[in-house]
Design a protein that fits this description.
about 950 residues, alpha+beta, Rossmann fold, Jelly Rolls, 6-stranded mixed β-sheet, 5-stranded antiparallel β-sheet, 16 helices, about 25% helix, globular, binds 2-acetamido-2-deoxy-beta-D-glucopyranose, binds calcium ion
């Protein structure tokens, strides 16, 4: 055992973070186990891809961090979305303890092996189906949920006690035996107390390799534990006080089987890696990385929502021009968008949402748009926007083009809910429409301008402002310029330094801090006749009317929209706005350092921990945020404040570092009015300039509410089967009849109450029923927003839920290969000779069919084609140099069952010991030491 290595890892950990204290209990360890496995798997995939693409790969230093892994994957701009993906997976994992605390199947308690495995395998099918439809957000959520029981198996069952050193591969398969499960009537444990609990599992159970797990209940006296069965153990488990006393869990070092905690955690990491490997096999390497938020290029999404009604032909032409210019200038550069989304809307139709990673597919979709129909003068703009917000990626930016008022104004609060929850910025490109009338009598052609009315435009302005975006109002002829200014400046590493709006307008002073990492400092202003004075950190000033000053290096103005490029000067700037017209002001720059955050809610009851909110936080009472600093492993937060959007009131939180760049921030009070989140921090840079002070702000404006909504349901919808989502609503304000709205992004048939009477402090229940049509493809994503609105709209809250549609899977076996021929004429000098094989791959008569065949190992050339006589058979031909004597095919069917076929020229194929496995082994050791510093459970020892 290379013990120096273990010592090194331990030291690194001690100097680093101390785990994720905000999520006490077993959450802590699920978090570490999950993060370690994700970092490991991602490194493996990036290494394999680099190898396949013939590029260099350098392992990041250990212990791995998301930053370092994104860098090693040659995707430094993805570090923020990678962090976000990891956090999202972990939150869903941790949530299982809060949502399903007493459901034994989710924790492999009470010998619920079959039920626990069903949760994993059905969830795994959903993950694979979602990935296939590129619904990565849904895939991540489900992935997090199923990793929880998978990891618990190793702590709660006797798998490790049976001497197993490797994961149980049958937990991620549905057609095999899980093992020899103890009969319900078979005794498995004897009573024990303290140290003698090491040997409380009956000898015959161990000798015959019988699987069992502990019973668990927090209710005293009433116990469902059958005679002779093991208990979970620990202070709050009441079953462990009943014969046979004691327990077998390995959640912490203090647990009854705490001496096996490290071993259990080690196997849980390996099991997590194995499941991730299966997901990777089904998805393919690039889509797997996309699920993890790692993409080539800039990792930004280019999302257009476009009105395609009759008067829009000029606008569509402008979008075409801008798109082709973005594609021509950015494809192949590291500023290339990694995802393209297009949502057309018309009246009465809207959609479909087109999502692609291929710029040509996107360009073709835009080229095929034409301006027709639309009937009356209002169009379904918010329906289109709702679809884009539901199907797009979080933390991104949307551009909506229209010249008409929204016909679907009733979606206003739904759209705001989705903006807040996905933290997406929406920019509106509003043009006046020109109606050409031919006046027959005079023969003149008259042009009539129809400007969108002030109140109609106000809805778009309000939505833009809520999201921190711009509502740009220009003529059709100005649109191309305005669009290119705003889209071409968008980049994944643009950070917001300041965002503010005043409506009605009033004179006000704003300040922002520019740090050394910021470049391309840009100010965006919307509003009419705006005047201001800009003051630099050195006290220099320049007025808006002054074209010769040195602070503004370039400026452009079109319609109500103005941008200024500022001289790069580090320090605190000031912007004195003089206007009394409404305006928005936004200051952005490029910098790797940014932040992510989620609102948290402390769990009530026996299980302690924090859950991420899918709703608005509670107004006027205390609340918490999880803030993650991205783009630097050495940055730390010094201040987090909630700033009132309309004024200057602010509430500062208490910042508690949690390690891995995460911070728990606790606020005494969440404002009752709209607010933004602002962070300040320090980055210790390696350059001589010792430390950088930075400030960032969320562009999105958030609101809190006196209404709470909770909902809990399965997250998988089966087409053709009605699906119920029970929810409850409560208000701490005055009782009244609340309006209830339930909208889903797929226009599935749905029923829900339209109003509920709420008594103050008492919760009221309701149910939404959704039905997906029978022909809905597996992996379809649906977002359901349930809203509750107080009379007159004085207060609103909502919950945003995501479901996956998954058809019942009956194909559980992977495709198989049959070798047709293998020819070799290898000579002494392997580089001068070649070998070749051909094989047929099929998925059997009952199977869903071969979806993908790829080369997993081997340096040769592979070709595949469908058999002429049978389209269910794929023929593979392969040829390689004799220096590359091994080859492995990965074969995947349409529901994601993954198989592999290995062929070799060697007579005694070696157990693959290569450099890579050695590296993996050392990592493994390191991780097993890492978990020593952590706990699977609190001392309370909740399952
Ligand atoms: C919540 O209730 C308090 C007191 O009743 C009130 O002052 C506040 O404005 C309400 N907040 C919201 C968001 O409605
Ligand atoms: C709430 O609505 C119900 C049924 O529509 C009505 O009978 C009741 O009077 C309403 N209550 C209030 C406080 O408005
Ligand atoms: C809440 O509901 C319970 C049971 O329905 C009832 O006894 C109680 O009076 C209600 N509380 C209020 C404040 O209306
Ligand atoms: C509301 O639903 C919850 C959870 O499903 C249930 O425990 C509670 O009894 C229900 N309340 C009423 C008043 O029906
Ligand atoms: C890392 O991932 C590889 C491949 O995905 C796997 O074989 C290995 O066991 C993993 N290592 C650990 C420590 O889980
Ligand atoms: Ca129109
Ligand atoms: Ca219309
Ligand atoms: Ca199959």
């Amino acid at each position: 055992m290379p013990s120096e290595l273990s010592v090194l890892c331990l030291l690194l950990l001690h100097t680093g973070a101390h785990g994720f204290g905000i999520l006490p209990g077993k959450a802590l360890d699920h978090l570490e186990i999950t993060e370690n496995a994700i970092l490991n798997s991602t490194v493996q995939v990036c290494r394999a891809l680099a190898h396949a693409e013939g590029t260099d790969f350098t392992f990041p230093p250990q212990p791995f961090t998301a930053e370092a892994v994104a860098f090693a994957c040659n995707a430094p701009k993805s570090s923020k979305s990678f962090r976000q993906a990891i956090i999202s997976i972990i939150f869903q994992n941790v949530r299982v303890d809060l949502r399903h605390a007493f459901n034994a199947s989710f924790h492999f308690d009470e010998e619920m092996f079959v039920q626990g495995r069903r949760i994993i395998t059905e969830g795994l099918q959903a993950v694979k189906a979602s990935n296939k439809q590129e619904n990565f957000e849904a895939a991540r959520e489900k992935l997090g949920e199923i990793l929880h029981p998978l990891q618990d198996f190793y702590s709660h069952s006797n798998w490790v006690e049976l001497g197993n050193k490797l994961p149980n591969p049958n937990l991620i398969r549905s057609d095999t035996s899980i093992g020899n499960i103890a009969d319900v009537s078979r005794a498995t444990c004897r009573s024990c107390d303290g140290d003698d609990c090491r040997n409380n599992i009956l000898e015959d159970i161990i000798e015959q390799r019988v699987l069992t797990s502990g019973y668990f209940s927090v209710v005293p006296l009433v116990s469902t534990k059958p005679r002779g069965k093991c208990s979970h153990g620990g202070a709050i488990d009441q079953t462990s006080k009943i014969e046979p006393t004691g327990g077998i869990n390995k959640d912490t070092f203090d647990s009854n089987h705490g001496h096996l905690h490290t071993e259990a955690a080690r196997v849980a990491i390996a099991a997590t890696s194995e499941l991730l490997e299966d997901v990777r096999g089904a998805a393919g390497d690039r889509p797997f990385l996309q699920m993890m938020g790692i993409t080539k290029g800039s990792s930004k999404t280019l999302c257009f929502v476009i009105d395609t009604t009759k008067s829009m032909s000029d606008d569509i032409e402008a979008v075409r021009t801008v798109t082709s210019s973005i594609i021509n200038s950015e494809v192949g550069t590291d500023n290339e968008p990694s995802l393209y989304i297009l949502v057309p809307f018309n009246d009465p139709e809207f959609g479909p949402l087109i999502k692609t990673t291929d710029s040509r597919v996107f360009m073709n979709a835009i080229n095929s748009l034409s301006a027709t129909g639309g009937e009356d003068e209002e169009e379904l703009s918010l329906s289109g926007l709702q679809l884009a917000l539901s199907g797009g990626s979080s933390n991104s930016e949307i551009f909506l083009f229209t010249d008409a008022p929204a016909k679907d104004r009733h979606l206003r609060s739904t759209v705001i809910a989705l903006i807040e929850r996905t933290q997406t910025v929406v920019n509106f490109m509003i043009t006046d429409s020109t109606v050409t009338n031919r006046r027959r009598r005079s023969g003149n052609i008259q042009q009539q301008h129809r400007e969108i009315s002030a109140s109609d435009a106000q809805l778009y302005r309000d939505l833009a402002q809520a999201s921190g975006g711009q509502a740009i109002e220009v003529t059709k002829s100005e649109l191309p310029v305005a669009t290119s200014i705003i889209t071409e400046s968008s980049s994944a590493d643009m950070v917001t330094l300041l965002q503010a709006a005043r409506s009605p307008g009033k004179a006000d002073n704003f300040s922002f801090i520019v740090d050394e990492t910021v470049t391309k400092l840009t100010v965006y202003i919307t509003g009419r006749s705006i005047s201001f004075t800009l003051i630099s950190p050195t006290g220099e000033s320049q007025q808006s009317s002054d074209a010769t000053g040195s602070l503004i290096t370039a400026s452009q103005s079109v319609g109500n929209f103005k941008t200024l490029q500022l001289k790069n000067q580090v320090g605190q700037w000031e912007m004195r706005m003089m206007s009394t017209n409404p305006y928005t002001l936004k200051v952005m720059g490029q910098s790797p350092i940014d932040f992510l955050f989620d609102f948290l809610e402390a769990a009530q009851g026996l299980i302690t921990g924090f859950d991420v909110l899918d709703t608005r936080p509670k107004a006027g009472v205390n609340g918490s945020l999880l803030v993650s600093v991205t783009g630097s492993d050495s940055a730390t937060l010094t201040e987090v404040a909630l700033i009132e959007s309309a004024g200057s009131g602010e509430i500062k939180g208490v910042v508690l570092p949690q390690g891995s760049g995460n911070f728990l921030v606790q606020f005494e009070r969440i404002p009752s009015v709209a607010f933004v989140v602002r962070v300040k921090g320090q980055n210790v840079s390696s350059t001589p300039r010792a430390s950088v002070v930075f400030q960032r702000q969320s562009p999105i404006n958030f609101r809190a509410s006196n209404v709470t909504i909770t909902a809990d349901s399965n997250s998988i919808l089966v087409p053709g089967t009605p699906f119920s989502v029970p929810f409850s609503v409560m208000t701490s304000g005055t009782g009244a009849n609340f309006t209830i709205r339930a909208t889903n992004s797929q226009r599935f048939d749905s029923t829900s109450p339209t109003s509920l009477f709420l008594e103050s402090g008492n919760s009221t229940n309701g149910t939404v029923t959704l039905s997906a049509p029978l022909n809905t493809p597996s992996g379809t994503d649906v977002t359901l927003t349930i809203e509750a609105e107080a009379p007159g709209g004085a207060d609103t809250n909502y919950i945003v839920l995501r479901f996956s549609v998954v058809n019942t899977v009956t194909d559980f076996t992977h495709p198989v290969c049959e070798l047709l021929s293998l020819r070799s004429n290898c000579s002494e000098n392997c580089s001068l000779s070649t070998w070749a094989l051909s094989a047929r791959v099929s998925d059997g008569a009952e199977g869903t069919g071969v979806d993908r065949v790829s080369l997993k190992q081997g340096n040769g050339t592979m070709n595949t084609n469908l058999a002429a006589d049978n389209e269910n058979v794929t023929l593979v031909s392969y040829s390689a140099s004799c220096c590359s004597p091994d080859m492995e095919l990965q074969v995947v069917d349409r529901v994601g069952n993954v198989g592999s076929c290995f062929y070799t020229l060697r007579e005694n194929p070696p157990a693959a010991i290569s450099l890579s496995t050695k590296v993996t082994q050392s990592l493994f050791l390191c991780l097993s030491v890492m978990v020593l510093g952590l706990h699977m459970l609190t001392e309370g020892g909740v399952q």
